């Protein structure tokens, strides 16, 4: 005998508690992940299951007035649910709830089978919608946090908070990092940039500042060889930049120190146009001379400490020879006449200079850098004598 809707609703209300109890028991029997949960999370999942049964009764009472009443199921404990179980596990939960309802309700009224199927479809779509919204919100939050992290790297502020922020973003890189800066346009695909980094066993933090793309690079595999690979890694991202040149900052020990690499890369990017024949990808330390002339104090100190002082502490003859050689237009004969030595002596001293500082004064580009370093060193010595 067919039941009226009023009779079915009255019966559903009377057994809702029984259905909830049976559902929780079935969850415990069939879903291992539910059994392994702490009591507080089991309780949250149980609330969702109970809400699903209550929502079915409301939906059956008037499906048209509340077409999305199934979404109310997940408002019971949304944070606990999303933090406790995955979408796949949520669908398993829904399946158990629907099975219990179908087994019990269809016995009472066969015509309810179609209603149960329709409701199960609604609630499944609602579950997908809840997780999609959560993923979208998380993505937007991650984008804002990533932009904040890159801002902190560029400004050098909030160092003490940087570790926790990059951890929240899922930063997987280990050890040293380096910062890459170049021009980009609005069509740059940042997600593809991240995928490319992962293919190269690296992680990346990205930020767009005006028309500049800033990338903080780090390797996910812990290896001492990484320090020699940053330049090679940076070449993999050339197609994401639109400008003629990208500048790679020096390697630093960790992401907390990334501001030092960023500062050098940014300073190099500002002056790179001064080098007409600059390569497509250039290290910030290859622009020390231009950076120093533009007022970069770090570049000035680096040139003095890496070129002038090592020569001065090794031999005054080497310092004198380098100065004379550069001022003579890199002529061995003119340098030899000025120093009253044989040209072979000048040649020998130039070889020793190269051994000490790692720079070859006979090359036009390196000669320019060395000349800037000599001028800065002489000025620094003069200032030091005045202070004494």
Give an account of the 3D structure:
This protein has 388 residues and is an alpha+beta fold. The protein folds into three domains: 5-138, no CATH class; 159-285, 2-Layer Sandwich (TATA-Binding Protein); 297-387, PucR C-terminal helix-turn-helix domain (Arc Repressor Mutant, subunit A, Orthogonal Bundle), CATH 1.10.10. The protein has 16 helices and five strands. The chain has helices at residues 5-30, 32-35, 39-61, 78-84, 87-108, 112-155, 159-168, 190-199, 230-234, 258-271, 288-293, 297-314, 316-327, 332-339, 343-357, 364-387, and strands at 177-183, 202-209, 212-219, 246-248, 281-283. It has a five-stranded mixed beta sheet, with helices on both faces. Helix 5 packs antiparallel against helix 6 (112-155). The longest helix is centred in the middle third of the chain and has 44 residues, at 112-155. The radius of gyration is 35 Å and the shape is rod-shaped. Residues 65-70 have low confidence and may be disordered. It comes from Candidatus Rhodoluna planktonica. Residues 155-267 form the CdaR GGDEF-like domain. Pfam families: GGDEF_2 (PF17853), HTH_30 (PF13556).
């Amino acid at each position: 005998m067919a039941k009226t809707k009023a009779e079915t609703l009255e019966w559903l209300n009377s057994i809702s508690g029984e259905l909830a109890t049976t559902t929780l028991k079935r969850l415990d029997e069939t879903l291992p992940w539910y059994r392994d949960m702490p009591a507080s999370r089991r309780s949250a999942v149980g609330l969702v299951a109970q809400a699903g049964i209550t929502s079915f009764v409301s939906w059956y009472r008037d499906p048209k007035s509340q077409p999305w009443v199934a979404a109310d199921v997940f408002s019971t404990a949304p944070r606990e649910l999303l933090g406790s179980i995955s979408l796949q596990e949520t669908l398993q939960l829904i399946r158990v709830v629907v099975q219990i309802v179908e087994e019990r309700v269809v016995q009472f009224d066969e015509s309810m089978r179609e209603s149960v199927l329709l409701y199960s479809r609604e609630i499944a779509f609602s579950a997908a919608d809840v997780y999609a919204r959560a993923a979208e919100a998380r993505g937007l939050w991650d984008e804002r946090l990533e932009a904040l992290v890159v801002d902190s790297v560029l400004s050098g502020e909030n160092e003490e908070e940087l570790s926790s922020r990059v951890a929240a973003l899922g930063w997987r890189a280990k050890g040293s990092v380096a910062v890459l800066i170049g021009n980009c346009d609005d069509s740059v695909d940042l997600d593809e940039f991240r995928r490319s980094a992962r293919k190269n066993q690296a992680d990346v933090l990205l930020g767009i500042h005006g028309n500049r793309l800033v990338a903080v690079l780090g390797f996910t595999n812990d290896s001492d060889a990484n320090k020699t690979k940053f330049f090679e890694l940076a070449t993999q991202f050339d197609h994401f930049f639109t400008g003629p040149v990208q500048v790679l900052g020096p390697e630093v020990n960790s992401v907390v120190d990334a501001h030092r690499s960023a500062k050098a890369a940014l300073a190099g990017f500002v002056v790179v146009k001064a080098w007409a024949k600059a390569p497509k990808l250039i290290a910030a330390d290859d622009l020390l001379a231009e950076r120093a002339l533009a007022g970069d104090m770090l570049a000035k100190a680096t040139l003095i400490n890496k070129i002038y002082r090592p020569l001065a502490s090794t031999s005054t003859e080497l310092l004198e020879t380098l100065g004379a050689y550069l001022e003579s237009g890199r002529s061995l004969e003119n340098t030899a006449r000025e120093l009253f030595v044989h040209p072979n002596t000048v040649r020998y001293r130039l070889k020793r200079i190269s051994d000490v500082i790692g720079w070859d004064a006979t090359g036009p580009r390196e000669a320019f850098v060395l000349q800037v370093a000599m001028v800065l060193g002489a000025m620094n010595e003069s200032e030091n004598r005045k202070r004494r």
